[in-house]
Design a protein that fits this description.
This protein is an alpha+beta fold. The chain is about 45% helix and about 10% strand.
């Protein structure tokens, strides 16, 4: 992941510069308890890098704020940001700024020697590498075209071998017996395994105070230990009651790593709170990189969007090993220049890295879609249950309304019993009779209903008449129906015969009973 505010999926950084080694802090707002404020000792200069596995450094301050390399300034507890005074009134978080911007200002991303990197930013790194190494390019060209080692046809074979290594982007090329071989890296202009992709431009402001920590742990392992991480950062910040560390989110990354986004809230004595600017928080954490490495945090990146000038500078110079025509075409093919930026993919390692990040994002999206689908299923179930309850309550309400109407009718009848018909009741009777007469009128609703009934009967009759022409029965099925009906007919005939025989027997029994009664008399 690059250091472009969260990563473009490449190993290119916006720079990697020199930065004084971690100084000794002692200030009232953010470090050790002192009465005079922040005093930083005179540190030595050390070269580090930011983004790949360590912390970005600068000889003049992090990401834009210009500071000196011999010694840090001393602050008094005045009116500077984060409770500390600065030289210009805009210095932030314990590191003064002589540029008047304090963070991510004119000195960042390739303007001078400030920023993440070593002597500049990624915006100028590519062009500087190409312009500063003409001898290396000449040596590579000699190794590919005319090596002079043996002085015979073996040099031609060696040139072809060097060409193959240069195209592949690996190995060493020998071109002279008295010169060191050149190393072929994926950044060389002859490497064939390179392409240009597009990444989303990060969005965020310095005032939001968000910083991203890359930790060598799985998110499942870090989440139970999240409070320990917060406590460790709180102690690193000086355990000040006015400060609180907050975790904005945890996101899994490939290779058993995770990304934690944090911000620090500063509470004023009046009770108001505000997030510490992202660049100030990054500057402080960058100075304490040794302690962070001990906590398993190998990279700190401020989530701050670059300015238009910085993007213009980045797009103006092609990255190392990328041809200017290809870079220019990539800028023209950008589907959305306002949202995406071209980034180089050099070598299979970068392609594989982007593939892993893409798979991780796809996995996260699929997990989110599964959660949404589960929520939708639950909502649909709840909706069906609610609809059933609504229908049930409507039915109960209708039943209760009928019961209430009956009670009101009985009460009204009992109350009006013995009284003469009143004027409003007589008026209501007249209205009801008028409605009844209107319904019974031949030309009104009753006549229309009779006409509709006649049309329905005619339509049914015509449909029945057309049934024989519309439907037909298969001959085999018709034969089976005849056989079945014949069997039914035979069964009924046999049953009728049995009943007739029983009647005859009953008649005989009845006659015998009558004769027996006559003899008794």
């Amino acid at each position: 992941m690059s250091a472009f505010g969260g990563g473009f999926g490449t190993s290119n950084k916006f720079g990697a510069g020199t930065m004084p080694s971690a100084p000794t802090f002692g200030f009232g707002g953010f470090g050790a308890n002192t009465s005079s404020g922040l005093t930083l000792q005179n540190p030595t200069v050390a070269t580090t890098s930011f983004g790949g596995g360590s912390f970005g450094t600068s000889s003049t301050g992090a990401f834009g704020g210009a500071t000196t390399t011999s010694s840090f300034p001393t602050f008094n507890t005045g009116t500077g940001t984060f409770g500390l005074a600065s030289n210009t009134g805009t210095g932030t978080f314990g590191l003064a700024s002589n540029t008047g911007t304090g963070a991510f200002g004119a000195g960042a991303f390739g303007t001078g020697t400030t920023g993440f990197g070593t002597g500049g930013s990624m915006f100028q790194a590519a062009g500087a590498q190409q312009a500063a190494a003409p001898d290396q390019l000449a040596a590579i060209a000699t190794a590919l075209s005319l090596p002079l080692i043996y002085g015979d046809e073996r040099d031609t074979l060696l040139a072809k071998w060097n060409q193959l290594q240069a195209f592949w982007g690996t190995g060493k090329g020998y071109y002279a017996s008295n010169a060191q071989p050149v190393s072929f890296t994926p950044d060389n202009v002859f490497c064939r395994f390179k392409a240009i992709g597009y990444s989303k431009i990060p969005k965020g402001s310095n005032d939001e105070g968000l910083c991203m920590l890359l930790i060598n742990k799985k998110d499942s392992e870090l989440i139970p230990m999240q409070q320990q991480l917060v406590d460790g950062l709180y102690k690193l910040l000086g355990s000040k009651p006015s400060l609180s560390v907050c975790v904005n989110g945890v996101k899994p990354l490939p290779d058993n790593r995770c990304e934690v986004v944090i911000y620090v809230l500063e509470r004023a004595p009046t009770g108001a709170s505000r997030p510490v600017p992202a660049m100030d928080l990054f500057s402080f954490l960058h100075a304490a990189k040794a302690q962070l490495l001990g906590m398993g945090i190998d990279t700190v990146i401020p989530k701050v969007a670059p300015s238009k000038e910085q993007l213009t500078e980045y797009l103006k110079t092609p990255p190392a090993g990328m041809e200017p025509l290809i870079w220019q075409q990539a800028k023209l093919d950008n589907p959305n220049p306002e949202a995406f930026i071209p980034v180089p993919m050099i070598g299979f390692s970068e392609l594989f890295k982007r593939l892993k990040f893409q798979e991780q994002e796809t996995k996260l999206h699929q997990g989110r879609l599964d959660m949404i689908a589960h929520d939708i299923s639950e909502l649909q179930l709840n909706h069906s249950t609610t609809q059933a309850k609504v229908h049930q309550y409507k039915r109960k309400l209708l039943e209760l309304g009928h019961k209430l109407l009956k009670v009101m009718i009985g009460q009204e009848v009992a109350r009006k019993q013995g009284y003469a018909i009143q004027a409003d009741e007589e008026q209501l009777r007249v209205q009801l009779e008028a409605i009844q007469n209107e319904l019974n009128a031949p030309t009104q609703f009753k006549g229309r209903l009779s006409e509709l009934m006649s049309q329905i009967r005619m339509q049914n009759h015509s449909t029945g008449m057309r049934w024989e022409d519309k439907y037909s029965i298969d001959a085999t099925l018709l034969q089976e129906l005849k056989q079945h009906l014949q069997k039914q007919h035979d069964g009924i005939s046999h049953l009728i015969g049995i009943i007739k025989n029983d009647f005859e027997d009953m008649s005989i029994v009845q006659q015998g009973l009558q004769e027996t009664q006559g003899y008794r008399r």
